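Dear Dr. H.,

I hope your travels went smoothly. While you were away I took the liberty of generating a structure for the chain from your last submission, since the lab meeting agenda had it listed for discussion. I wanted you to have the full record in hand beforehand rather than looking at slides cold. The sequence, exactly as received, is reproduced here:
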Amino acid sequence: MRKLGKQEIEDIAVGAALLGTGGGGDPYIGKLMALQAIEEYGEITLLDVEEVPDDALVVPSAMMGAPTVMLEKAPSGEEATAAFENLESYLGKRFLQRCRLKQAE
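The corresponding predicted structure, in token form, is as follows:
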């Protein structure tokens, strides 16, 4: 198990900007959303694959497209939550873990 805090998010944002070679745009809004989540829920816990039960429901989530669109219309944080809740309802099974993100202020 490993924890990600605010400094790790700052480092990831710099790495994403450099390794994305500019094609992905500025990661600023995504960084703010991640920092807000840490403020509200605490550090992010990363699990080693060996720590995940064999029957766990694990669903990755990501945003696609140019991050600059989020400057015009910032996500509310409810988009992923609604999708996860609908998928859990459809499958009849809860995810191993999930975190609701709020719009960064």
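Two observations you may find useful: Residues 100-105 have pLDDT under 50 and may be disordered. The helical segments are 6-19, 28-41, 69-72, 78-91.

With kind regards,
E. W.
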